[in-house]
Amino acid sequence: MSAPDFPAWSRESAGRMEAVLAGLLPSSRIAPSRLHDAMRYAALGGGKRVRPMLVFGAGLVSGAEASRLEIAAAAVELIHAYSLVHDDLPCMDDDVLRRGKPTCHVEFDEATALLAGDALQSLAFQLLTENRLADDPRVQLQMVHLFAVACGSRGMAGGQAIDLDAVGKALTLPELENMHIHKTGALIRASVLLGAHCGEPLDPQSLGNLDRYAKCVGLAFQVVDDVLDAEASSATLGKTAGKDARQGKPTYVSVMGLARARELARELRHNAHEALAPLGAEARRLRELADFIVLRKF
Ligand code: GRG
Questions:
Q1: Which residue's alpha carbon is at the smallest distance from atom 7 of ligand 1?
Q2: Quick one: which of 78, 43, 56, 41 has its CA closest to 11?
């Protein structure tokens, strides 16, 4: 039987992620119900599930078992969901729309949203430590470590701090890139590396190629996000469009203009493909994901 095309594969992957998360998240029937309800609200029923797909795609390169990849993908998506809940809070981006529905603090309340984000983060690490993800426990420890670094002050949370500090400032291109390498890129890179480590050990060159790919798609993701923020409607994006410009946040579009930002996304896609070239047919889904990230309309 031939492999499914990318739309079918991505639909199947997103559906699988939804089912896995629904089974792993605590039930709303269990106390504290309101907190569990908010966690499920934030993590289920929406999102493109790009990061889980990167985990699955990288796992195909290293021949990883599906059950291991599902846990790694769930951990990454829980961290992503937590970051969105906290990012939307009044003390940060103060947003009311996410994934086409009211943000978590609007649907529940600020304190519940804060706790839901905290608990989603803890659950992610719980999953990585209570399930076998690699044959060698030292590799698994290394995976938890790289994930913790990617989420923390030298990764996503640090990127968010740089972002908050940048409001109203004119950043240079290297400064903007540094912010996004941390804020968006770190978790995307961790997704690819976690997926790869779930399988057979890869040689350092292959791991290096995957890392280069991840850095390119991480940056491309943000460049495209900025282009869409400038071009698309809130209805298409499922979140408030045009907000960055209104808040005086530097973006790729404000720093280099729309045409050059589009060109940069194309260059990064090309570089991502180049990084995958030595990995052969097993890297097909990662190649298609780079295309999806750059060509998406939402
Ligand atoms: C609060 C610690 C902390 C971090 C927040 C990632 C992040 C840092 C904030 C998200 C805000 C944002 C809009 C960032 C730009 C890029 C991005 C991560 C967009 C949202 O990701 P998608 O498009 O969302 O993958 P879906 O809903 O499809 O999962």
A1: 83
A2: 56
| Closest residue to atom 19 of ligand 1, CA basis | 225
| Distance, C-alpha 108 to centroid of its chain | 24
Kindly report the pTM of this predicted structure: 0.95
Structure tokens at 136: 């060698």
* CA nearest ligand 1 atom 20, residue: 84
CATH number of 6-295: 1.10.600.10
Q: What is the pLDDT along the chain (298 residues), one digit of tens a residue?
A: 678 899 999 999 999 999 999 999 999 999 999 999 999 999 999 999 999 999 999 999 999 999 999 999 999 999 999 999 999 999 999 999 999 999 999 999 999 999 999 999 999 999 999 999 999 999 999 999 999 999 999 999 999 999 999 988 889 999 999 999 999 999 999 999 999 999 999 999 999 999 999 999 999 999 999 999 888 777 777 777 777 777 788 899 999 999 999 999 999 999 999 999 999 999 999 999 999 999 988 8
Distance 83 CA to ligand 1 centre (A): 7
DSSP annotation of 279 reads: G
DSSP 3-state of 29: coil
